[in-house]
């Protein structure tokens, strides 16, 4: 392929006009930059479950509209996933329901176990992706500049390591009072600027730890 590979750490396929992941992609690269291409689909596992040594994967500014992460059992040390600037309207993380009590899908502990940063800015999401709690190491989630309309109580359920939530520039009009209640490690920012909130949020704010947290609420409709 036209990708540039330094034979050690970096695989650079940026601006190469590829539409699929090259078959000769190195599995031992630490960083893979696949940004600014024509990629429409990305499938983590090719069926062989050959593990990649990636820590940083950049798929920003492509043409991805739907993405399923619940097959990503072959990226055991991936720490950052950049999906900014695509056309993603569906991002699936939660596992399929087992049939008749089967344990067929009992691989949740292998779903991106090291992922710390998930960035899905400038896409077409109208809800927070369900299943974020399955990403056991997730610390930062960037969801700004989408079309998210409300925050439900289960959106960040079980996100026990989450420290930073960026929801700026969405269309949020409603936030459930318990939406952030169990996020005990939030200590950086909850960014809700440039949304459509019309009423103050005392119930939500009371549940947060003010001693460590910054909450940004400017440029709303109130």
TrEMBL record:
GO cellular component terms listed in the entry, alphabetical order: plasma membrane
Claim: rRNA-binding is one of the keywords in the record: no
Pfam families hit by this protein: LRR_1 (PF00560), LRR_8 (PF13855)
Keywords: Leucine-rich repeat, Repeat
Segments forming a coiled coil: none
Domain of life: Eukaryota
The keyword Repeat belongs to this UniProt entry's keyword annotation: yes
SUPFAM superfamilies: L domain-like
PANTHER family cross-referenced by the UniProt entry: ANTIGEN BSP, PUTATIVE-RELATED (PTHR24369), INSULIN LIKE GROWTH FACTOR BINDING PROTEIN ACID LABILE SUBUNIT (PTHR24369:SF213)
Protein known as: LRC66 protein
């Amino acid at each position: 392929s036209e990708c540039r590979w330094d034979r050690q750490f970096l695989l650079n396929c940026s601006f190469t006009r590829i539409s699929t992941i090259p078959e000769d992609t190195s599995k031992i690269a630490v960083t893979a930059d696949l940004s600014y291409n024509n990629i429409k689909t990305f499938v983590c596992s090719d069926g062989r479950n050959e593990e990649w040594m990636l820590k940083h994967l950049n798929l920003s500014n492509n043409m991805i509209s739907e993405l399923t992460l619940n097959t990503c059992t072959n990226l055991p040390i991936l720490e950052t996933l950049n999906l900014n600037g695509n056309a993603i309207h569906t991002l699936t993380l939660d596992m399929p329901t087992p049939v008749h009590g089967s344990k067929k899908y009992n691989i949740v502990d292998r779903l991106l176990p090291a992922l710390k940063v998930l960035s899905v800015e400038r896409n077409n999401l109208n809800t927070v992706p369900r299943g974020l709690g399955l990403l056991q190491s997730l610390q930062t989630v960037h969801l700004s500049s989408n079309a998210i309309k409300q925050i439900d109580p289960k959106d960040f359920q079980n996100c026990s390591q989450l420290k930073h939530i960026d929801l700026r520039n969405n269309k949020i009009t409603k936030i459930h009072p318990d939406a952030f209640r169990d996020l005990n490690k939030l200590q950086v920012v909850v960014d809700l600027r440039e949304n459509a909130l019309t009423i103050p949020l005392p119930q939500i704010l009371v549940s947060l730890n003010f001693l460590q947290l910054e909450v940004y609420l400017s440029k709303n409709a109130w």
